[in-house]
Automatic annotation (TrEMBL), chain A:
Residues 45-139 form the RRM domain. One of its GO terms (cellular component) is UTP-C complex. Keywords: Coiled coil, RNA-binding. GO terms for molecular function: RNA binding. This is RRM domain-containing protein. Gene3D superfamilies: 3.30.70.330, 6.10.250.1770. It comes from Helicoverpa armigera (Cotton bollworm). CDD domains: RRP7_Rrp7A. One of its GO terms (biological process) is rRNA processing. The lineage of its organism: Eukaryota, Metazoa, Ecdysozoa, Arthropoda, Hexapoda. Belongs to the RRP7 family. The keyword RNA-binding applies. Residues 154-184 form a coiled coil.
TrEMBL record, chain B:
InterPro entries: NOL6/Upt22, Nrap_D1, Nrap_D2, Nrap_D3, Nrap_D4, Nrap_D5, Nrap_D6. GO terms for cellular component: chromosome; CURI complex; small-subunit processome; UTP-C complex. This is Nucleolar protein 6. Residues 1-44 are annotated as: Disordered. GO terms for biological process: rRNA processing; tRNA export from nucleus. Keywords: Chromosome, Nucleus, RNA-binding. Part of the small subunit (SSU) processome, composed of more than 70 proteins and the RNA chaperone small nucleolar RNA (snoRNA) U3. Part of the small subunit (SSU) processome, first precursor of the small eukaryotic ribosomal subunit. During the assembly of the SSU processome in the nucleolus, many ribosome biogenesis factors, an RNA chaperone and ribosomal proteins associate with the nascent pre-rRNA and work in concert to generate RNA folding, modifications, rearrangements and cleavage as well as targeted degradation of pre-ribosomal RNA by the RNA exosome. Residues 23-37 have a biased composition (Basic and acidic residues). The keyword Nucleus applies. Residues 164-305, 310-441, 446-608, 632-828, 830-978, 987-1115 form the Nrap protein domain. GO terms for molecular function: RNA binding. It comes from Helicoverpa armigera. Belongs to the NRAP family.
Length: 263, 1118
């Protein structure tokens, strides 16, 4: 890729792993501009990069853009998204999927972003002090790091549970506060309140609906009037016919696949 | 008005041809023909007509189901001879008859030992060399009529491979009183046939005039020819000679009478020796069949002609027999049906379905080998007991003298009975559409028999067997030695194998035809009859290593010793009995499956001096695929034996776990999940020795980042799920739940270590335990975790929705343990299940399909062969099992049908129909392989939901088809013992091939084509858990698929494949749209000044190299 071309608003540049890579991927970048900027992707300093190759890591990208200036943070995600990333407290971290990703690179200064957009050549991902971990090295590392001593595991569990309990307590407290009458005299009904209400789940709703229906049915009379008897007889014939029709359809199907040639 | 289409039986109710129950129902139908003119509403609520009511009711009462009835109608239509053909044949027959009747009289006497007749006729006589010593003088007397007989005359013939039987009665003057002996009758008959052949060769509208010996019946040739023109495409004509019944008194051919002199057969030189020898019932029957033919034909006409239903039933039975490859002629079937009509077992008011069913039930219970039956009523002919003395199967005809089943071997009769029993079973099984296996599925020998014994050189075999048989037997069978040999061998095999086999059936291929103007001897060069025996093994008895005989002090012991020869020895058993015993080799299960072969080889050698090299035994050809190539203990390790030791260790561990103390919740159950727990893993975990100088953390070895050669060998873990006692205190939030689960893992690991001093290692997601040198991976399974994953909040209402993650967890921790248990049970019931599954998985993997064809789906397909074996029984031999699975893969209609695996009869008919409808209503989202098990619950066909895809299935079917052809050719024609060729894949057709470092590939020494280099397993590791489940290739593949799955498919052999084959998706070179969210791997290209986007293939290939650093040796691009 000798020349870089402007397509739509994107600028494309080849991104090499090492200096002697022969067939690099082309990455596409532009300034991250949306109506409402979030804190972690500040206006004017954030560069959106798509088609980041699967093996690229944060440090590698910093390496790649080191000519533009110093990078404050790099955020890799599966799809470009404008929403704020919610941090969920997970006990077991989400597994890393190896695939093409998008990256938000935040520069320290606005000028550095402009410089980055004017770059004609990117540095390779690998530099002397950082090598992207791939292949056997990565797998061995992963294997070894997942073996933890029981003591460490225990500590992890304890800290997580402690935090969880704290959060749960906070939530409970909040709910209790809700139960207090507000200025206009309204009370929010919650799970734990004095006023008992049914749980709002699908199952419970279905149950109530079924009960209603049952009640309705109980009031009906069956096989009472002559027309009802006549109808039920007809229904029997209809069900026989339906079965017959279904079977006929099946036969047509089988016939179409020429399965009736026994030899 | 409704357009009537008489051809299609399902077009409209009223136009239905009256195939069923025409007795008395005609009038109703006639009325209806007028009724058809009435304008009818098409709706379901229209008033029913009388006919329709009758039909609906009839179907309920007289037929199995609507579907069954409709299918019978269809098949009858299908095999019916077309009217056009019938008309043409009638015309042809009239011409032929006129021509035949114009045959000139001839007053000359010919001496048949000279060539004069042949010279005059200009055709050869169909007389074999063996009859040359019979001298007689022949004079041609003109016959009076040519008749159509057999199935065509009765109207129950099948249009494929149709042969119309014509019958000419030879005038009785042709034969003299003494002609009945020493094949003079047969010789004259042959001369008569040659006479007709000579006359026919002048007839213009026939071609391919040939003599035929049916089933090697050398004494009785027939004349075959084809009409010229289009008619010849549809049928052949066969002329059979019979004899006017006045020629001989029937009692001359009673079973006890002798008609073939010893002196003649054993060449004692004097043709006129008058000494009467032992009875020759077989020889007698060959004459009797001609004498009684006319009478029996008349009887059949009388019985069957009137009733359409009976004819239909006979047709159905004939289709059934042909599909089963049973050597029972249509003539015998028709006579059997006639017999059951005579005994009022069936009648012509019954529907064809009822008739067929009743015939099957009657035949199933019949005992023609001990209590024969007869069409004759009253006194006169010899008693049935007399017949039983000389024939294995007895069914005498209308005259009472002729045994219709004279040529039926006991093996054929047993096979017939067995098939009847199976057929009734199928009909009674409401859960399958029994029609397809009964009438539509051909049962090939390769699918039916567990073992097949073939004789390579029949001539030699004949000699060696004949030299050891009695004179009486030889005399009885005369020149027809093949029957004699078959009979002798059958009896030997039946006695030697006893209850080890459920069925022995002989397979004879001996029909021989040759042109009338060439001599028999010349035509015979290069032709050889083929004789083989098929065995259906009894799964329990066949693997018995010890053949226990009678106690030593009984007289039977002597007989036992005489039969078994040196192999028999005295043994004392644990129960104190001392008996004569034969002991066969059988240390491993695989070896025990060959006990049958050992016995047969031994007996053939002992009795007839036939060496094992003269026979071909198709049985354990693929057992080498199941054997370990790198490791061995005191013997070769086969997959089922290794699996058994894993199971034993697991059972011990399970006991330990249940007895753990000081846990907050007790362990209530432990279930196996890995395929090894149902014997389905081709390369089960072995107790490996402890690694030397391990680098460890806790109790577990770490992987040293050193050079490629010193990487640890791949050691698999055996996964199991732990179920804890009930508690309501689990947190209601998924992450906290998982944290608590980890705490439990930690505690269980600790307890295991302190209470049983087992090396353990706890992880957040599981526990690893080392027991007996094997690593077990335990995980707590809890339904609440699944529920938590499913939980969703919608408008403030909690709803439960399946998500990918929840389904996976449910499969792993709930469904799989149950399924594994069921498959384990299946293996206990059918010990060949596991090895078959292993073979199939290896086959799939060898063709690089394994990642795309999930192993569980493969196991379920194998299970289907065992749970729905119709029309055969479950196989007892893995090789046959594989053949069956492959043919299931090829022949099953995956697009329309689904397989239901109901292991313990838990599913009701309604449930199944419901699932069927669910798939039918939404064909788009239904998986393309639909296998529903009884444990799927709310997720029917969950195991095959995402894979295999349509393309993979198509490829697998294609490969299976060629594999089947390969096996069939190798086994049935080439007598090959090495059929591993079916496991060799082709790498052509793939775009990119990635070569891997063999040392890093798991099981690289276990590949099908690698040669074994056995190392002895040492003492198992006891104090440190080795590096387990470290499989770089699997991780590499996972990364490749997750990163590049949109652009390419990756193929790999899980069992030691050293390459990964890559196939680009077909749209790889297309122009793409550039989108912010989908710019992956695109590069800009300038075409005609415009910028387009394409996939950067070169970069992808370089990525393959980058991601597999240290593992990839080379990449070649095709």
């Amino acid at each position: 890729m000798k020349a870089t071309k402007r397509v739509q608003d994107f600028k494309c540049l080849p991104l090499k792993l090492t200096a002697d890579s022969e067939a690099p991927h082309t990455i596409y970048m532009k300034e991250h501009i949306i109506r409402e900027h979030t804190k972690d992707k500040p206006q004017g300093r954030t560069l959106l990069v798509v088609n980041v190759p699967p093996y690229a890591d944060e440090k590698g990208l910093v390496n790649a853009f080191r000519e533009a200036g110093s990078v404050q943070s790099v955020q890799l995600c599966l799809k470009p998204s404008t929403a704020d990333v919610k941090v969920i407290n997970r006990f077991i971290p989400e597994p890393n999927t190896t695939t093409f990703r998008a990256a938000y690179i935040v520069f320290k200064k606005v000028a550095e972003l402009d410089k980055a957009l004017k770059l004609t050549k990117l540095q390779p991902l690998n530099s002397e002090d950082h090598q992207v971990k791939v292949g056997m090295k990565k797998w061995i590392d992963e294997y070894n790091s997942c073996i933890v001593l029981p003591k460490t595991l225990k500590e992890n569990i304890e800290t997580f549970m402690k935090q969880f309990d704290e959060n749960a307590q906070k939530a409970e407290k909040k709910e209790k506060e809700l139960e207090q009458e507000d200025d206009e005299g309204w009370v929010t009904v919650t799970k734990r309140g004095k006023v008992q209400s049914f749980a709002r789940t699908e199952k419970v709703e279905n149950k109530i609906m079924q009960k209603e229906e049952k009640n309705k049915k109980r009031k009906e009379l069956k096989n009472f009037y002559t027309f009802q008897i006549r109808e039920s007889k007809m229904k029997h014939i209809v069900s026989l016919r339906q079965k017959f029709e279904e079977d006929k359809k099946k036969i047509v199907q089988i016939k179409q696949s020429r399965r009736f040639k026994p030899f | 008005m409704v357009k009537k289409n008489p051809k299609s039986s399902i077009s409209e109710d009223d136009t239905e041809p009256s195939v069923v129950n025409e007795n008395g129902k005609r009038s109703a139908e006639d009325q209806n023909k007028d009724g058809a003119k009435r304008v009818r509403t098409k709706s379901l609520y229209r008033q029913p007509t009388v006919n329709e009511l009758n039909r609906l009711q009839e179907t309920e009462n007289l037929f199995n189901s609507n579907l069954f009835r409709l299918q019978i109608d269809e098949i009858i239509q299908e095999v019916k001879i077309k009217e056009k053909t019938e008309k043409r044949f009638q015309q042809f027959f009239t011409e032929l008859k006129n021509h035949l009747l114009s045959i000139p009289q001839d007053g000359t006497d010919y001496d048949l030992s000279e060539e004069t007749l042949a010279k005059k006729l200009k055709v050869k006589l169909p007389i074999s060399e063996k009859l040359s010593k019979t001298k007689c003088v022949f004079k041609f007397h003109k016959f009076s009529n040519v008749e159509i007989v057999g199935s065509y005359a009765l109207g129950c013939s099948i249009n494929s491979k149709l042969v119309v039987d014509l019958q000419i009665a030879v005038p009785s003057e042709t034969y003299t009183k003494n002609d009945s002996v020493n094949y003079r009758y047969h010789k004259k008959r042959a001369a008569y046939l040659a006479y007709i052949a000579a006359h026919l060769s002048k007839f213009q509208s026939i071609e391919e005039l040939q003599y035929s010996y049916i089933n090697d019946s050398e004494s009785k040739p027939v004349l075959d020819f084809k009409p010229t023109g289009k008619l010849g495409n549809h049928l052949k004509v066969r002329i059979n000679l019979v004899c006017e019944s006045e020629a001989y008194k029937l009692h001359r051919f009673s079973p006890e009478r002798n008609n073939l002199r010893e002196a003649w057969l054993f060449n004692e030189n004097s043709e006129n020796a008058t000494e009467v020898g032992p009875p020759t019932p077989y020889y007698n029957s060959s004459v009797l069949s001609d004498l009684t033919a006319t009478e029996n034909q008349e009887f059949l006409n009388e019985t069957l002609q009137r009733s359409e239903n009976l004819k239909q039933a006979v047709t159905l039975l004939k289709i059934w027999l042909r599909q089963r490859n049973l050597n029972v002629s249509g003539h015998v079937v028709a006579l059997l049906v006639a017999y059951y009509v005579q005994t009022k077992r069936i009648n012509n008011i019954m529907s064809s379905y009822q008739i067929v069913r009743n015939v099957w039930i009657a035949l199933k219970a019949s005992e023609l080998d001990t209590k024969g039956i007869s069409l004759h009523k009253g006194e006169g002919p010899p008693s049935l007991e007399e017949f039983h003395k000389h024939f294995p199967v007895v069914f005498t005809d209308k005259t009472g003298y002729y045994n219709i089943c004279w040529q039926m071997c006991r093996g054929t009769y047993n096979a017939l009975k067995r098939e009847c029993a199976l057929a009734v079973e199928m009909l009674d099984n409401g859960k399958i559409n029994s029609f397809i296996p009964l009438f539509m599925t051909p049962v090939k020998p390769l699918l039916k028999f567990d073992h097949i014994l073939r004789f390579k050189n029949l001539k030699k075999l004949k000699e060696s067997v004949l030299s050891k048989t009695s004179k009486e037997a030889k005399l009885n069978y005369g020149v027809e030695q093949l029957y004699l040999i078959t009979d002798v061998l059958y009896n030997l095999l039946a006695k030697g194998l006893g209850n080890r086999v459920d069925l022995i059936q002989q397979l004879v291929e001996a029909d021989f035809s040759w042109a009338v103007n060439s001599s028999l001897d010349k035509a015979r060069i290069g032709f050889e009859e083929k004789l083989s025996f098929g065995f259906v093994l009894n799964p329990e008895n066949s693997i018995n290593v010890v053949e226990k005989g009678p106690p030593a002090n009984l007289p039977e012991a002597e007989e036992f010793r005489a039969f078994w020869g040196d192999k028999s020895e005295l043994r004392r058993f644990q129960d104190g009995s001392i008996t004569e015993t034969c002991v066969w080799e059988g240390e491993t299960m695989t070896e025990r499956r060959t006990v049958t072969k050992q016995i047969i080889d031994y007996l053939l050698k002992l009795k007839f001096a036939i060496p094992p090299t003269a026979t071909y035994y198709m049985a354990a050809q693929l057992s080498s695929v199941l054997a370990r190539k790198q490791w061995a203990s005191s013997h070769v390790l086969y997959s089922d034996d290794s699996s058994l030791s894993v199971l034993q260790a697991f059972d011990a561990l399970r006991r330990d776990l249940r007895q753990l103390t000081q846990l907050p919740l007790d362990i209530s159950a432990v279930y196996g999940v890995s395929s090894v727990f149902s014997y389905c893993n081709p390369l089960p975990a072995l107790p490996h020795p402890a690694p030397s100088r391990p680098w460890q953390r806790g109790n577990t070895c770490l992987v040293k980042d050193s050079d490629v050669a010193s990487m640890p060998e791949y050691i698999p873990v055996c996964t199991a799920v732990i179920e804890l006692g009930h508690s309501g205190k689990w947190p209601g939030e998924i992450h906290a739940f998982r944290c608590l689960k980890a705490a439990f893992h930690l505690q269980i690991a600790e307890r295991l270590a302190t209470q049983y001093s087992l090396p353990t290692q706890a992880y957040p997601t599981h526990i690893d335990v080392l027991k007996d040198g094997l690593v077990f991976r335990l995980e707590i399974g809890h339904p609440k975790e699944i529920t938590l994953l499913k939980r969703e909040l919608e408008n403030g209402v909690v709803k439960f929705r399946e998500s990918e993650e929840s389904v996976k967890l449910q499969c792993d921790t709930v469904l799989m343990p149950r399924l594994r248990g069921a498959l384990h049970g299946l293996h206990q019931k059918h010990p060949s299940f596991g090895p078959t599954a292993c073979l199939f998985k290896r086959w799939l993997s060898a063709h690089l399909l394994h990642p795309h064809f999930p192993p569980t789906v493969a196991e379920l397909m194998v299970a289907a062969v065992y749970l729905h074996p119709q029309p055969t029984q479950p196989p007892a031999e893995p090789t046959v099992g594989l053949v069956r699975v492959l043919s299931l893969l090829v022949n099953f209609d995956w697009a329309r049908d689904m397989i239901v695996l109901d292991f313990n009869e838990d599913m009701s008919r309604e449930e199944i129909t419901q699932i069927e409808q669910k798939f039918a209503s939404d064909p788009e989202s239904a998986p393309c392989v639909r296998i529903v098990t009884a444990y799927d619950g709310t997720l029917p066909s969950v195991w095959s939901n995402s894979a295999p895809s349509k393309q993979v299935l198509a490829r697998a079917r294609l490969l299976a088809n060629s594999a089947l052809q390969y096996i069939e050719k190798a086994v049935l024609q080439e007598y090959k013992d090495n059929i591993l060729g079916m496991f060799i894949p082709t790498l052509s057709g793939y775009n990119v091939v990635i070569h891997l470092h063999p040392a890093l590939v798991a099981y690289s020494g276990e590949r099908v084509d690698s040669s074994p280099s056995l190392k002895r397993l040492g003492d198992a590791a006891a104090d440190v858990i080795p590096v387990t489940e470290f499989q770089p290739v699997a991780m590499y593949l996972e990364e490749l698929t997750s990163a590049y799955g949109d652009f390419a498919l990756f193929f790999h052999d899980t069992y030691g494949g050293e390459v990964i084959a890559v196939l680009w998706k077909p749209d790889i070179n297309d122009d793409r749209e550039f989108q912010l969210t989908n710019a992956n791997a695109l590069k800009p290209v300038t075409v005609n000044g415009e910028t387009k986007y394409r996939v950067n293939i070169e970069a992808l290939i370089e990525d393959f190299r980058i991601l597999g650093e240290g593992l990839v040796k080379d990449i070649t691009v095709n």
